[in-house]
Write a structure and sequence with these properties.
Distance between the termini: 50 Å
Structural class: alpha+beta
Low-confidence stretches: 1-5, 9-35
Largest sheet: 3 strands, mixed
Mean pLDDT: 74
Strand content: 15-25%
Number of strands: 3
Radius of gyration: 19 Å
Shape: elongated
Strand order of the largest sheet: 1-3-2
Number of helices: 3
Helix content: 40-55%
Length: 141
């Protein structure tokens, strides 16, 4: 059975992106030769795949190919101190919100193919990344 994969990426707008824009706006056009490279924004990527039958004619013996569309949205957290419980809670709130957003986007793309487990899978994916980031922050103390 043939499988095709399509990925859709989205950027989280609002306050999360302003942090990155504000940080990059303060940088000068020319950096001294001994300056270190700018830090990469800390982020977790929440994703949710959805497989749907393709609307392509095939013979009845080969079956229809399956297309998997994955929506990925980054969750930035470089403005949080993950060694503090309050900021850990804020990160988990962001992950839950973005998990809802990726599933809503898939529902918008495929309104006739609902997935009851989308939120559970997206949240598990995002929570795993958030827990790793929190563990790294706690061991760095």
């Amino acid at each position: 059975m043939a499988h095709r994969t399509r990925t859709i990426g989205m950027t989280v707008l609002g306050g999360l992106c302003l942090v990155v824009v504000a940080a990059s706006a303060g940088a000068s056009d020319q950096a001294p030769a001994d300056a270190q490279a700018a830090p990469v924004p800390e982020e977790i990527v929440v994703e949710a795949p959805r497989s749907v039958p393709a609307r392509i004619e095939h013979s009845s013996t080969t079956g229809a190919p399956i297309i998997t569309t994955t929506v990925r949205i980054p969750v930035l957290y470089n403005d949080l101190d993950l060694s503090k419980p309050h900021d850990q809670d804020r990160l988990m709130t962001r992950v839950r919100s973005v998990a809802r957003d990726v599933c809503d986007e898939l529902d918008r793309i495929y309104p006739f193919n609902p997935d009851q487990d989308c939120m559970m899978r997206a949240l598990a994916n995002g929570t795993k990344g958030a827990e790793q980031a929190i563990a790294e922050a706690q061991t760095a103390q």
